[in-house]
Write a structure and sequence with these properties.
The complex is a heterodimer of chains A (106) and B (120). With 106 residues, chain A is an all-beta fold. Chain A has no helices and eleven strands. Chain A has strands at 4-7, 10-13, 19-25, 33-38, 45-49, 53-54, 62-67, 70-75, 85-90, 96-97, 101-105. In chain A, the strands form two sheets. In chain A, strands 2, 4, 5, 6, 9, 10 and 11 form a seven-stranded mixed β-sheet that branches. In chain A, strands 1-3-8-7 form a four-stranded antiparallel β-sheet, with no helix packed on it. In chain A, a hairpin with a 5-residue loop joins strand 9 and strand 10 (96-97). The radius of gyration of chain A is 13 Å and the shape is globular. Chain B has strands at 3-7, 10-12, 18-25, 34-39, 45-51, 58-60, 68-73, 78-83, 92-98, 109-110, 114-118. Chain B is 0% helix and 48% strand. In chain B, the strands form two sheets. In chain B, strands 2, 4, 5, 6, 9, 10 and 11 form a seven-stranded mixed β-sheet that branches. Chain B has a four-stranded antiparallel β-sheet with strand order 1-3-8-7, with no helix packed on it. By secondary structure, chain B is an all-beta fold. Chain B is globular. The chains are: A mainly beta (106), B mainly beta (120). Chain A binds chain B through residues 34, 36, 38, 43-46, 49-50, 55, 87, 89, 91, 94-100, and chain B through 35, 44-47, 50, 59, 95, 100, 104-113.
Chain lengths: 106, 120
């Protein structure tokens, strides 16, 4: 099983600042990685797939990068609606999610 | 627009059974793999099962293998999860999600979730 490890567990950032979230795979997943945003009481929402491709309707301030085992989700200028939990997911070999990063207001 | 609506959740005793359904609309259901993902209260996401478009390939997480069974009815645009021998640790919100068109993929669309509580 491929283990996905996200860091940090919690990230405190002020609105308007940049946030950088990390995701590491225990073995290469190529570019078969997605990022999701989840707000309380809601289903996850797809942000990024193919490691760097924004899903339909996702603002340009969200960007993904990386390949192999190291991946990053960057939110360039945080808006109030961006404070949520973010999950990475590999779909190269079955499916595994990271444990999540909670992005909170500083 | 794409819609996925789960139903069938509820309270069940340990050792009991429950069947979840997921009604799909707004896309050609028979073209897509489908998955079940769950989330225990206050915890992260856990993939449970996927089923290919023709049901020829079905896979399960080790945590549910031998107890859960996925199926689909393409004529009814519906996905099912039969859950047997339920345990307290199966308590979670269960989501159905649209998978890839020809293989395992990212989840573009999710249902709103169905809460399953296993407790005596």
């Amino acid at each position: 099983e491929i283990v996905m490890t996200q860091s940090p567990a919690t990230l405190s950032v002020s609105p308007g600042e940049r946030a950088t979230l990390s995701c590491r795979a225990s073995q290469s997943v190529s570019s078969n990685l997605a990022w999701y945003q989840q707000k309380p009481g809601q289903a996850p929402r797809l942000l990024i797939y193919g490691a760097s491709i924004r899903a339909t309707g996702i603002p340009a301030r969200f960007s993904g990068s990386g390949s192999g085992t190291e991946f990053t989700l960057t939110i360039s200028s945080l808006q109030s609606e961006d404070f949520a939990v973010y999950y990475c997911q590999q779909y190269n070999n079955w499916y595994t999610f990271g444990q999540g990063t909670k992005l909170e207001i500083k | 627009q794409v819609q996925l609506v789960e139903s069938g959740g509820g309270l069940v005793q340990p050792g009991g059974s429950l069947r979840l359904s997921c009604a799909a609309s707004g896309f050609t259901f028979s073209d897509y793999y489908m998955s079940w993902i769950r989330q225990a209260p206050g915890k992260g996401l856990e993939w449970v099962s996927y089923i290919s478009s023709t049901s020829s390939s079905i896979q399960y997480a080790d945590s549910v293998k031998g107890r859960f069974a996925s199926s689909r009815d393409n004529a009814k645009n519906s996905l099912y999860l039969q859950m047997n021998s339920l345990r307290a640790e199966d308590t979670a919100v269960y989501y159905c999600a649209r998978d890839g068109r020809y293989s395992s993929s990212w989840y573009s669309y999710w249902g709103q979730g169905a809460l399953v509580t296993v407790s005596s």
